[in-house]
Amino acid sequence: MATDAFVRTKLQEVYTIGSIVSLHYFEFSKHFRFQGERHDFWELVYVDKGEIDVFADQEGYSLQQGDVIFHKPDEFHGVWANSRSAPNVVIVSFVSHSKAMSFFAGKIFKLNARQHELLAQLMKNGFAAFEPPYDDPYNHTLRRRDRAPLGAEQLIKLYLEMLLISLSQDDALTKREQRLSSRTKQRSEAELARRMQAYMAQHLLEDLRLEQIHRAVNLSRSHALHIFKSHTGQSIMKYYRGLKIELAKTLLREQQHNVTEIAERLCYSSVHTFSRHFKLAAGMSPSEYAKSVLARM
């Protein structure tokens, strides 16, 4: 029989995992908190035991044992223990350019027994293929074992793809709205606002731009502006200028630098700009403030 009588049918792949970025199994303390990050690949977060609080972009969620949430690429997200229980958490980060992955954006699932077994086999082969540590939240580098079982890495890929297929076929998903937590949202936003404040306080002798501040906490410009204003009542740059003026007052009281030197030290473009900002905040010019300090002495 001629070979051209055999038609080769290319198998369709709904989900294709291109590579694994990280593979973690954490046993967190009940007070653990991860400040948050943003990256250009997918991340699966599964609660193996206990409960956790998760924030994703502008929302907060409370996840229970058996829940899994997917963070899509470029979604700012983080995880917190809720101070009530010490949770065990699986986190797997991976690259997939499959269009069907959009199904997982904005969803939370409760794994059934079969899906839990698929995830367990994924992790089992992950531990067999790669060296520890698996519980360091700041170490994502996967180092291959010298004598890993044959096919262990491929099985990671296959089990993850099988899990994705199973979840997409399962109608028993949990809508994110059912896990929304205003407390988690407030807690995460307050922490982000504090981190922005701390970053600005550490860079008073520089000329920070808004872009540097919101990128320092992995937030978009609009998200950072909204969070900071809602938790401090001020805009980011107005707050930053206020910190500079308070430092300027301290320097004036110490009487070791004149107004021009202080303006230069605080990275103002000119003495005029410094004086204008100072007067707006203090109600008097730097020179008038210095004189008032001398008068009180």
Highlighted features:
297 residues, 9 strands, six-stranded antiparallel beta sheet
Note down, in words, how this protein is organized.
- The structure is a single chain.
- The mean pLDDT is 90.
- This protein is 42% helix and 18% strand.
- A hairpin with a 2-residue loop joins strand 3 and strand 4.
- With 297 residues, it is an alpha+beta fold.
- It has nine helices and nine strands.
- A six-stranded antiparallel β-sheet has the order 1-7-2-5-8-9, with no helix packed on it.
Residue fraction in strands: 15-25%
As a whole number of angstroms, the C-alpha radius of gyration is 26 Å
Average pLDDT over all residues: 90
Counted beta strands: 9
Strand order of the largest sheet: 1-7-2-5-8-9
Q: What structural class results from the helix and strand content?
A: alpha+beta
Query: Can you summarize the main beta sheet?
Result: 6 strands, antiparallel
Distance between the termini: 108 Å
Shape: elongated
> What's the helical proportion of residues?
40-55%
Low-confidence runs of at least 5 consecutive residues: none
- Helices, by number, come to 9
Order of helices and strands: EEEEEEEEHHEHHHHHHH
Topology of this protein?
Elements: E1 19-27, E2 42-49, E3 52-56, E4 59-63, E5 67-71, E6 77-81, E7 88-95, E8 107-110, H1 113-129, H2 152-169, E9 173-175, H3 182-202, H4 210-216, H5 221-232, H6 236-254, H7 259-265, H8 271-282, H9 286-296
Antiparallel strand pairs: 1-7, 2-5, 2-7, 3-4, 3-6, 5-8, 8-9
Helix pairs in contact: 1-2, 3-5, 3-6, 4-5, 6-8, 6-9
